[in-house]
Amino acid sequence: MSGISHILDMAARALLGQQVGLEVTSHNVTNVNTPGYSRQKVCFETAAPLPSPWGPLGDGVRVQGIERAFDPFITAKLNETASELAEYQAHQAYLDQVASLFNETQEAALNDRLSKFWAAWQDLANNPTGSGERQALLQSALSLCEILNFQADGLVRERTALVQRLGPLLEDVNAHAARIAELNRAIQETEANGQTANDLRDLRQQELARLSQLIGIRYYTDTDGMVNVYVGQGTSLVQGVQSWTLDFTLTAADTLSIRWNGPNGLQEDITAHLSGGQVAALLQVRDSLLAAYQAALDQLAQDLITAVNAQHTQGVGLELFSSLTGTYAVTDPDLPLDSAGLPFGDDLTASSFVIHVERDGTPLAAGTIAVDPGMTLNELINAINTDPELAGLVTASLEGNRLKLTANSGTDTFGFSQDTAGLLASLGLNTFFDGDKAYTLAVNPWVLANPDLIA
Question: What letter would DSSP give residue 128?
Answer without folding.
Answer: T
